[in-house]
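Journal club prep — side note

Before the paper discussion, L.F. wants everyone to see what a predicted structure for a comparable chain looks like in token form. Sequence:
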Amino acid sequence: MAETVLNASLRERVGKGGSRALRREEKIPAVIYGKGMDACSMVVDPKELKAALSTEAGMNALITLKGEGPFDGKVVILKDMQVHPVRRSLVHADFQAIDLTQKILVMVPVLPVGKSEGEKMGGQMQIVRHELEVYCLPTAIPQSIEVDINALNIGDVVHVEDIPLEGEIEIPHDVNFTVLTVVGVKAEEEEDEEGEEAVGAVAEEDAEEASDE
């Protein structure tokens, strides 16, 4: 997996006032933490961060921090970022320092490959888990978990234990949960109609009770 570089500097001012001042300078506050190091407050450029995440690795990009501070040279992965609810701009980022020789837990998107037989007959693909938690070396994080769906018929289900994995990649799980399934459109329509009928029956009962009072 390719690594990217992100410039950072130590954050001197903390609190809401300091954060607002940073954003006026088109910077955002950030924090780095990891095994064997104290959490450290930093300042990064949101545009540079977006560029670092624009590789094929996406949110799981390995980023090397550069700058004057204890974080210089640390390889990190983005663990969380806060976005402004209205402007949708980045307002804060959390980074985890990692050891490239130790496995970590990351979320990887599920990617159905092909078109199922069930869809060809009018069914619909339902992705129950859009992401899966993967345990692997940082350098072996897959871009996606591909699931071949070509042979699936209506009613077929793919469970987590059905997914073939390559290399030393694991998907930790306690139960054999559903990842995706193919459902029939008719069954969905019947469920919707039953739901509407039930709501209508409740409304009629309420109206009758109100008229009796």
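L.F.'s comment for the group: Residues 78 and 95 are 5 Å apart (CA to CA). Keep this in mind when we get to the figures.
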